[in-house]
Amino acid sequence: MITIAVVGPESTGKTTLTEALAAHYKTLWVPEYSREFLTNLNRPYIQNDLIAIAEGQLREERKYRKQVKDLLFLDTDLFVIKIWSEFKYGHCDPWILQQLSMNQASYYLLTYYDVPYEEDPLRESPENRPELFDLYEKALKEYGVAYEVVQGSFQKRLETAIQKINSIL
After folding, report:
1. Helices (DSSP H) in 42-114: which residue ranges?
2. Average pLDDT over the chain, rounded to whole?
3. First CA to last CA across the chain, in angstroms?
């Protein structure tokens, strides 16, 4: 099975792109588990909550893998938790890093921050999108995973993503 993860700073079109790609390829996509978790938390989150979010994301990915044969899209993965943990707290829990090394997608799409920021109660850092983008790109390179930056209009992002995905299918 090929998995394509869409990662990047907050409010850069990850969910929109993931949903459109899944529709284009007539397959499923795994929603970002942290949205569900944080919406139901009823208190400010703390760093230890990131472990529960990582566990939930992995659990959801396993569930969806059972429902598709060839191709699955991920609206974020453990790279997002790693980057956010390091950015917000200065480090990432070793368990998350271990799980990341064992649970990488086949290919990554990194969303650029050239789209307007949309306010959302779960978002925290509109002014840090350039810095976060650089952290994502650095991490993807350090882990040696295959990735493509998608930027521009939604249509341009979708076309770039489809072209790249078609080249690996």
Report:
1. 49-65, 78-89, 94-102
2. 96
3. 10
> What single string gives the DSSP state of each residue in the chain?
-EEEEEE-STTSSHHHHHHHHHHHTT-EEE--HHHHHHHTT-S---TTHHHHHHHHHHHHHHHHHTT-SSEEEEES-HHHHHHHHHHHHSS--HHHHHHHHHS--SEEEEEPS-S-----TT---GGGHHHHHHHHHHHHHHHT--EEEE-SSHHHHHHHHHHHHHHH-
The model's pLDDT over 37-85, given as tens digits with 9 standing for 90+, comes to: 999 999 999 999 999 999 999 999 999 999 999 999 999 999 999 999 9
